[in-house]
Amino acid sequence: MRKLLMALALVLLAANLAFAANKEMRLFIWSEYMPEDFVPNFEKQTGIKVRVDYYESMEEMIAKLQAGGVSQYDVVVPSDYVIPTMVKLDLLAVLDQSKLPNMKNLAPIFVNPPYDPGNKYTAAYQWGTLGMMYKKDKVPGNPPSWAVMFDESKQLGPFVLIDSTREMLGCALAYMGKDVNTTDKKDLDELAALMLKVKKSKYFQGFEVGTGARSKVVAGAAIAAIVYNGDGLRAVAEDKTSAFANPAEGTVMWVDNMCIPKKAPNPEAAYKFINYVLDAKTGAALSNWTQYPTPNKAAMAFINPEDLKNPAIYPSDAYMKKLQFLRDLGKDTRLYDELWTMIKTR
Amino acid sequence: MRRFHWLVPLTALGALAFLYVPLMAVAVFSVNNSRFGLSWQGFTLKWYAKLFANEQILEAAWNTLVLATVSTVIATVIGTILAIGLDRYPWPKRLFSALDINLHLPVVTPEIVFAAALAVAFGVLRLVFSIFEPGLLNMIIGHITFQVSFVALVVRARLEAISKDYEEAARDLYADNAYLLRRVMLPLLKPGIVGGAMLAFTLSLDDFVVSFFTAGPTSVTLPLYIYAIVRRGVTPEIHALSTLALTATVVLVMLSERFTRKQNKE
Amino acid sequence: MNSHLVWYGELTTLRRLLRRGLYFAAPGMIWILLFLALPSLLLIVVSFTTRGAYGQIEWTFTLENFKRLCGFGLYGWSADYFIILFRSVHVAFWTTLICILLSYPLCFYIANKPERSRYFWLTLIIIPFWTNLVIRAYAWLLVLAPQLPLARIANALGLIPEGTPLYPSSFAVYLGMVATFLPFVALPLYSSVEKLDWALVEAANDLYAGKIRVFLHAIWPQTVPGISVGITLTFIPAMGMFVVPDFLGGAKYMLVGNLIQQQFGTSRDWPFGAAVSLALMVLTLVALQLQRKRGKKVEPI
Q1: Burial B146-155 (b: 16+ CB within 10 A, else e)
Q2: Which of A210, B254, B261, C40 has CA atoms 20 to 30 A from the CA of A281?
Q3: Contact (Cβ atoms closer than 8 angstroms) between residue C130 and residue B249
Q4: Nearest C-alpha of chain A: how many angstroms from B217?
Q5: CATH class as words, domain C80-293
Q6: Residue B79 forms contact with C (CB below 8 Å)
């Protein structure tokens, strides 16, 4: 009997501990997207404890939110092309602009963006591109071409593709010179054929998330991988045998935004965090570490000068023309989803 | 001793080596002084030190233990009385086979089907009761469900081995139901109950699939943590963590062996 | 029904007995019904629903998911999903078979050891059995890495290009699966082998039976209970396994477990995932029926 009571007490204690951690801010963000002191500085400034959870792709994030995460996270950082979907799925809360005085720091093109008119739901976090991280001695070209992955005759060694539906297919479409948002059946059939051929190649090492792929190149298990430009540049700074570049044919551009899920447990803390990030000095500290271009006009004054000159971070005007935004396709997203499942299963 | 064809010991030892080579590799690389790449760069214990400074890992370890303990306690209680109820009462044949099938359901259902069904069920329940957010509660419920069957089956095996004589003798001596249960059956069943509880505990500690489908942000367990890190790129801290888990397993197995050996002598 | 009977020394009526029995059995039975049987039925229902444009479940009932399962997708007909289902059964079958082939020598070897050291050898099998599956799976990523001997040998033999690891590949998946399930077969088999009556084997040998006949007629029938437990513990979980194919097969070798996990994860297509789960459930039931037909009882350790 006594043992039973002890067990019951243990159960209650454990349950209490599990449900007790409520006065914290829960951040759901891409992995490796903040310098190590970023969150501790916020905690020191505001006294709010932060719990961070990570995801590796947009699809993973939305799946988690749909499966109940919408009432478990306070700040989430989705990319531009999924925002309309998330709004339709009723996952995001409308931002109370009065609580975000630092919004005025954003550069004009990030205020009132096409994927979120009036900044109702979003505040830009970082933007950037998808590019190739590669071993300097194995892959030619400056910048290299996507062909080293997509063209059988030009494959020179093991390579890794990125495990993210729209972004991966977008890079392939960019290589083919097509619109990354095409819904043309012919284009999609060509895309399917290309991807299936690439998958059969003996050099194909699988689909990895951006950070995983980068680790493979650094470890020498692959000579080329698709990674986000910031992740690539940070790794290249430590590993002199690797380099990162936006490939010659053009690529996908994205904007990540801070949003508050509809049923966030602690929205007050969420607003404080978003405001903290939008501050000029903090925004600059963030970008200087992540090596992603910043959307924060006021922060530009504090960015490292070498970064401003680096075309991998801030592409030249000529290259900007080759960058394409992914757009939400509404009901046509199904075309890409089924294509992706087909590519993965065959 | 019997003389076997030389292939037998060769295959046997080969099979054992096959089982241990990966684990040894992990242990070796957990003390290798190199972050990426696999060339030997000297002996170091720094990855273990980093492990203990990592709050997330400590929290995952704590969650794993709490989850295993809570679910084992509840499952053992439910499973034991289930076994007694099924074995010691004269159920009519058709009813008994229905109950028996129900009992075996968790054992024969593929884990991923069970996990998917739970995810769907909790998704629907969430619309009504907000307590079913992905998290520790869901995980505990999921774990208990498959643990109950295993506990019940182990206890039932033990029950079948205990002869009727003890209970009949107790009744002859005017024992009532509560006394019979407390002082006669439970002590006789102790090895079975403990065996079932240990089995349930280990099943929960090692569980990945069910936890994967029901976990929430605050309830990451060690297997889930390791899985997420492997996807991002294995780090030597994970090797250190795995080696520690392996060592803990070795210790637990030896303790349980000693325990069962003592029981068998009684 | 109301006549008295004596049950385990107690004089009572059937009704009273069963009522008490209900108190004991009900919590467990209700729990399993509530959290396994009902959710599974719900899963079956969901497999007939449609996926909304944004990944939600729309409660319009349709056979679309099953049509997709049979191969009729947006990009024309293809046997993709049949292939995956077949491949999963195939992998499970060969894994179980290889495990059985490896377990017999292992068990004979251990049973042959003097009694004192048997515990030691048994412990050697039990330890991987209790070690976490995720750890054992990712450990193979280490062993098959390009810089380690196995991959180098394959490279020298010209099987793989230089600098690539031995995964993702079907070979790696089989390695991982066999390594994972070997203890699951060896341990139950051992309990049968330990009780083996060697007199029968010697009798067969005395009668000049060839080695294979000795095995088939003297050894195999005695070990059937252990083997059947091992098969149940291996074949069915192997069909639904997803960690090992995920790490070691990657995108190149997909099994039905990965497919289901993908539908409930990044593809956000719960209805289709439910349909695939249903297919797996059906396969499992077929496998169980086949086993039952051959007269073996389903009972774990």
Answers
A1: bbbbbbbbbb
A2: A210
A3: yes
A4: 7
A5: mainly alpha
A6: yes
* B74 vs A: CB within 8 A: yes
Is residue C267 less than 8 Å (CB to CB) from chain B?
no
- What are the angstrom distances between the C-alpha of C223 and each of B153, B154, C188, C193? 21, 21, 9, 6
Amino acid A71 reads S
CB contact under 8 A, A331 and C168: no
Q: Do B133 and A212 touch (CB under 8 A)?
A: no
Structural domains counted in chain B = 1
Closest to B223 (Cβ–Cβ): which among C21, C127, C134?
A: C134
Per-position pLDDT tens, chain A of length 346: 666 666 666 666 655 554 444 578 999 999 889 998 999 999 999 999 999 999 988 888 998 888 888 889 999 999 999 999 899 889 999 999 999 999 999 998 888 888 888 899 999 999 999 999 999 998 888 889 999 999 989 898 899 999 888 999 999 999 999 999 999 999 999 999 999 999 988 888 888 888 888 888 888 888 999 999 999 999 999 889 999 999 999 999 999 999 999 999 999 999 999 999 999 999 999 999 999 999 999 999 999 999 988 888 999 888 888 899 898 888 888 888 888 888 887 7
Q: What is the ipTM score, two decimals?
A: 0.86
Q: Do C53 and A340 touch (CB under 8 A)?
A: no
Residue B175 lies in a domain: yes
For residue B37, being part of any structural domain is answered with no
Is there a contact between A72 and B216 if contact means CB atoms under 8 Å apart? yes
| CATH code assigned at B143 | 1.10.3720.10
Kindly write down the DSSP assignment for every residue of C59-121, as one continuous string: ----SHHHHHHTTEETTEE--HHHHHHHHHHHHHHHHHHHHHHHHHHHHHHHHHS-HHHHHHH
Structural domain contains residue B131: yes
**B-contacting chains (≥3 CB pairs under 8 Å):** A, C
Q: Is A69–B37 a contact, with Cβ atoms under 8 angstroms apart?
A: no
Q: Which residues touch C15 (CB under 8 Å, ≥6 apart)?
A: C1, C2
Residue B86 in any domain: the answer is yes
**Which residue in the set B4, B168, B226 is minimally distant from C8, CB to CB?**
B168
Contact B15 C198 (CB under 8 A): no
Domain boundaries, chain C: 4-69, 80-293
**pTM of structure:** 0.87
Per-residue pLDDT at C26 exceeds 80: yes
Nearest by Cα to C138 from C235, C250, C230: C250
In sequence order, the 6+-apart residues with CB closer than 8 A to the CB of A2 are: none
State how far the Cα of C140 lies from the Cα of C152, in Å rounded to an integer: 15
- Give the tens place of pLDDT for each residue, C271-299: 999 999 999 999 999 988 887 776 544 44
C52 touches chain B (CB under 8 A): no
Tell me whether B257 touches chain C (CB under 8 Å).
yes
Mutate to test the interface with C, among B3, B6, B13, B19 (most CBs of C within 10 A): B19
Chains that touch A (3 or more CB pairs under 8 A): B, C
Residue C109 and residue B9 in contact, taking contact as beta carbons nearer than 8 Å: yes
Q: Which of C13, C15, C32 to mutate to test the interface with B (most CBs of B within 10 A)?
A: C32
- Contact across the interface for C119 and B261, Cβ inside 8 Å: yes
Residue C57: closest CA among C66, C70, C45, C69: C45
Domain that holds residue B204: 48-265
Contacts of C194 in chain B (CB under 8 A): none
What domains are defined for chain A?
A: 2-125+255-314 (3.40.190.10), 128-253+319-345 (3.40.190.10)
How many Å apart are CA C270 and CA C256, to the nearest integer? 15
Q: What percent of chain B has pLDDT over 90?
A: 40
